[in-house]
Amino acid sequence: MPGKENVVQIGCGVVGGAYAKAYVHHGFSLTGFDVVPAIIDKMNDAGVKCFHPDDCPSDLNADIVLLSVPTPLIKETQRLDMKYVWSTIPLVVKLIEQSSGLTPILVIRSTVPPGTTLKWEAEVRAKTDKPFQVAFQPEFLRAVSCEEDARAPWQIVFGCAKDADDTRARMSNCFLDFVGRDENKLTVLTIAEAEFMKLVHNYANGLKISFANCIYGLAHELDPSIDAQKVLYLVSSTAECFLSRKYGLRVGAPYGGVCLPKDVPELTSLAPEGSVFREFLSGTGKINEWITNTPSLKVELTESPNWVSPSELNV
């Protein structure tokens, strides 16, 4: 088995700091970078070498460079601010230039819109002639258990170019250390798929929370004696969408049958006109009508349209 890669972690806040400690825990040689003095001191106190980018050692031989920098929301535009991602380029170029071993793999972990990693790669390539590869790895850390999640993730996903066999093999070998070498817990996507997945992952979490609060608000409007918490909890053990990972994920297939086409509009109609509850619930029917009336995207199936098998997806 190949030896462990030399890892550099750029950005050592909540996410980057948790991953930096996790790599050290799994026996990797790791060097961290951050621009906040308090974070640098905290990492060094925890036994993780950490520097300001201006103080980058000249003898680092980075094999894998991980970027976990903030991408905050710009309130006025409701888009992510990429300035911290672009600000990493000078340090990344310096690390590439001083590398004398394996071709460095640069891995963006920050949440970004699809296409960002390749645009960032182009900016880096414009500043160095030395070879390197890029990848994107969505992370699924929870703030309350970030260090535990980083050390022992329940699933690892990363994206790289389809023809980047060396990158795929090296990253797989590296990440498998975190899941006990269980290949079933590792999935490789394209870069765009991995970037998109991170956003969809977080949207799904937000959607479920908002769904619960929408039902809570609607119940209060209809009859304050309805215990929405009890109803939702029971639905989680009766509705197939909660019981099965396979149900409801068949893209291109609208729901049909008898119950859903009549009960979805009925629940929607119970919400007051113009209310946020009506707005939220009506989207379900509108999306179903859209896919029903879009022949170029609709999938015609002879069996239940709501099921999808992992074997079809190569995961």
UniProtKB/TrEMBL annotation:
The keyword Chaperone does not apply. The keyword DNA-binding does not apply. Its EC number is 1.1.1.132. Pfam families: UDPG_MGDP_dh, UDPG_MGDP_dh_N. It is an enzyme of class 1 (oxidoreductase). Residues 193-289 form the UDP-glucose/GDP-mannose dehydrogenase dimerisation domain. InterPro entries: 6-PGluconate_DH-like_C_sf, NAD(P)-bd_dom_sf, UDP-Glc/GDP-Man_DH_dimer, UDP-Glc/GDP-Man_DH_N. Transmembrane segments: none annotated. Belongs to the UDP-glucose/GDP-mannose dehydrogenase family. This is GDP-mannose 6-dehydrogenase. It comes from Ectocarpus siliculosus (Brown alga). The lineage of its organism: Eukaryota, Sar, Stramenopiles, Ochrophyta, PX clade.
